[in-house]
Amino acid sequence: MPELVKITLADGVADVRLARPEKINALDGAMFHAIAQAIADLRAMPGLRCAVLSGEGRGFCVGVDLDSLDSTPELRNLQPRTHGEANLFQQAAWGWRQLPVPVIAAIHGFAFGAGFQLMLGADLRIAAPDAQFSMMEVRWGLVPDVAGIALLRGLVRDDVARDITFTARKFSGEEAARMGLVTRLAADPYAEAMTLAKSIAASSPPAIRAAKRLLNLDAPASALLLAESVEQEALLASPEHAETIAAAREKRTPVFPDRQN
Fold first, then answer.
1. pTM of the predicted model as reported, rounded to 2 decimal places
2. What CATH number did the domain enclosing 194 receive?
3. pLDDT tens, position by position, 96-117
């Protein structure tokens, strides 16, 4: 079997690549399973501090491989929650947001349909100005169901979300950046994402993980304020915080041990 999702880890940064370039990384049943497994593998990976998600070949991901729909049995029963809050297909996008470390998507070429929703799961998105985007499910008589609605609502205004969902229109990376769908533009999104990931990986791992937990928390202000205090108490007592103070005093780069929490 070909390796459909490739992962390499160096200096705390996981380089995660969709690897079906001959189909512009179109998602069939095997690809959905491979992505879900990659997310599970990353969650258990010692030393992980940040992940960069990209696609090999001419584009990030052109969406679902329509030829595979009849041969994907999981599509016949979507309601069972097989991956926590999500089903298999939703996990391909939702799972990136639930990883304990930041995920950066690097988008070139195309991010259509399920591929568009997949990149929404990343914490940050870096795109080429000429990359093409579309939430195109209604074109096929469907709705976005790869966690797209749940992820999209927190990124753009409600009317913008409705516009790109109802029309299924294509738009460029430049327009995506103006909407707020893309964090920043870069001529080489992958190189920019790796540079950013290395910068994040150099910071205190417990602080970065705590920050992601807080940013993921969907709760009233009172609960968020308390959660901030709980996280900060633990961080103030952590060896990583002590190391940042010592490194600053000694005018050196801090060195952090790898641990899972």
1. 0.95
2. 3.90.226.10
3. 999 999 999 999 999 999 999 9
